Each structure stands twice: as structure tokens, then as C-alpha cells.
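Before a computer can learn anything about folding, someone has to put a protein's shape into writing. The outcome of that step, for a single protein, is printed below:
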Amino acid sequence: MAIIKSERFKTEDIYLDYDFEEVMFRYEHTSKNIYRKFYGKEESSEIIDHSNRLFCDALRFGNEVSKEQYEEGKQKR
């Protein structure tokens, strides 16, 4: 289900799971930075651009998950 970039992005961190590409994202509202974590890997220290295709696809086709689910991560299929 699509995640709408709304007022929530100004007030809270958002965690996304995009299982089609086996990737998760963390949006940090205070810095407005986006971080990426592929299934079976640790979170990358690279800051992702807001126009990144995978991030945009995750917003459109992914699911919002909890902080705990993001931190736990998922294993590759």
C-alpha cells in the first residue's frame, strides 16, 4: 500500500519494507536523511537521495513496518 509523504514525515521516523527488491528504508525526520538496508545485510552508512528509485518504489509499493521490525531486518529468500 502506498505511503503518503504527509505531516508524519515532519514529526516521526518512518520505516519501510519493500519485499519485491528485498530492501528496507529508514527515514529520519530530524535530519531528513534516508538510510537503506538490504535483506541479510547491515544498514548502509550511505545517505540515500529522496529521488532514489528504490526508495520511491518502496513508498508506492512497500509496507510501513515498526522500528523493531526494521532493526531486526529480514533474511534473503
